[in-house]
Amino acid sequence: MGPVRRPLLIALVLLGWALPAAFPPGAAAQPRSTEPVGVYIDRGIIEYDDRKYAEALKNFLEALQIDPENAEVRYFVGIAYLALDQVDQAITHLEKARQLDPADLDIAFNLAVAYFTKEEYDRGQPHFLFVHGKEPRRDNLGYYLGFIHFQRKEYEKALAYFQENVSSDVRFQQQNRFYTGLTKHHLGRDEEATRDLEEAVKLRPDAPLGRTAKLFAEAVAPKPAPRRYRVEVRGGVSYDDNATLAPTSRVLELRTQPRRSAAEIALLRLEYDLVATQPDTLTASYQIFSNYYNSLQNLDVLNHTWGANYVHRARLGTLPAWYGAQYSYDYLELDGAVFLSRHTGTASLTLFENDSNFTLFQYRYQDKDFRSTNTLDLRKESRDGQNHALGATHILAFAGGRHFVRLGYQFDADDTIGADYRYFGQKASVGFQVTGPWEIRFQAGYDFQFRDYPNKNALAAALNKQSREGSFVQGAPFNVMRRDGDHTFTASLSRDFPYGLSASLDFFKERNSSTFSLFDFDRNVVTLSVGWKY
Fold first, then answer.
1. What pLDDT score does 336 carry?
2. Tens digit of pLDDT for each residue in 46-92?
3. Is 94's pLDDT higher than 80?
4. Average pLDDT, stretch 349-363?
């Protein structure tokens, strides 16, 4: 039979060599029912054995004209067309042969091979299974069935067929061992996968597939265990043109107060893997972050965060999946006094559709305790409460992750003690990364969140009342029904350097458009930082 094309990129290197003849050994010696049909078949078989497939086909077609309802003649016409890589014609005649003699295993097997060659696996598989039920040890049958399940990412079934495969041809032996190794890699059995790939190399080391198998063996071989602990230090400078979040319009004299300042930032992060196995990782972490303003010391920030992160690597159906659970506790100091403490729990699921696509599903629960007093001592201004968020993000990666595009959506609800801060929100996000010359990464992202506050705002109502009673309240009257549209844009240039060093230039812009003008603001922050990881 002619070359059998394989759809995977790995196997494309094999094009150009021919697989052995598919008709059963000893076919030329079988008795012929009539003359000269048998004469033409015998001539055709001789030509076929000499790889003169066009001449063989001529003889088989002569026999077909004499006896078109002969299953054996149809079979030989089909395999001749298959050897000439005229697969559609081969299928036509093999299908007819199968109708004429549905019990013949050779006809069923070669019809399945023809469909396999066209990558029509769903049509070929039933014929392979028919043969498997009668003759499971037929040459290369296990390989074909294993490959079909491999294509469907049904790796357990694929492995069972690959392991039962029998082949007398060293080329099929190499292919079967190669895909056995790939299948075990997908099942997380990298030590066994490495041994199979190394065996595939030994079978034909100079063949294209042998060289490919060597590269894969090096790639999937278990690596030395990484360090259990990691350290990150980062420092830099920034400039914030609206650190106080002053409104864009004249409200309560806030725009006349200082709001711009340069700042120094610093970060220290420590991580330690309490559990580090192939399927499971449990990491404990601590982080401290500071942001000290040169002109607005009352807004200086010091934030401590303790966390734990658990990841279990498994499968969901046919897809590799990471199941995650995270917990963190942080408290934030503002000008030396505790301003906020939070408990945050997150459950996540990451599905890897293929090497370039993965999707993150996430649910987050957050309990917030603000230590500051309520504005105007209004209970409805209390921000203590819980936040629930549910969302998904899809990432399409290119060039091994050097470039990517991301799309995301999130729904969240803030259930606070004070009615003024209860909202329902919807957030859409897009972003991308491009890695350019000198390995400089450019990232950009845009998020839009719409927040609907269903209750009348007590602060707006109180300010309106003061204005009506004769007090001067700049910006009054205020809209008591608050709706926010929060636009956030980020961009960064970053590069890694030897010895764990890195540098980053970041830009952050937020434009919150609100019906309550006190919360309508615009902010821009530029940050230059350097870091070190160990």
1. 85
2. 989 888 999 999 999 988 999 999 999 999 999 999 999 999 999 99
3. yes
4. 93
Q: How many CB atoms lie within 10 A of CB 181?
A: 26
The per-residue pLDDT for range 217-273, each reduced to its tens digit, is 888 887 776 788 999 999 999 999 999 899 998 888 888 888 899 999 999 999 999
455: which residues sit within 8 A by CB, 6+ positions away? 380, 419, 420, 422
Helix residue ranges, H only, 67-169: 71-83, 87-100, 105-117, 121-134, 141-151, 155-164
Please report which confidence band the pLDDT of residue 131 belongs to, taking 50, 70 and 90 as the band edges: very high
Which residue(s) pair with 358 in the sheet?
A: 352, 395
How many other C-beta atoms are found inside a 10 Å radius of the C-beta of residue 337? 8
Please report, for residues 72, 266, 272, 285, 313, the alpha-carbon distance to residue 229 in angstroms, rounded to integers and kept in the order given.
69, 20, 4, 10, 20
Whole-angstrom distance, CA of residue 229 vs CA of residue 42: 74
Q: From CA 415, how far away is CA 427, in angstroms rounded?
A: 17
C-alpha neighbours within 13 Å on the C-beta side of residue 507: 10
Q: How far apart are the first and last CA of the chain?
A: 57
The structure tokens listed for 303 are 């934030």
- What span, in angstroms and rounded, lies between the C-alpha atoms of 453 and 439? 45
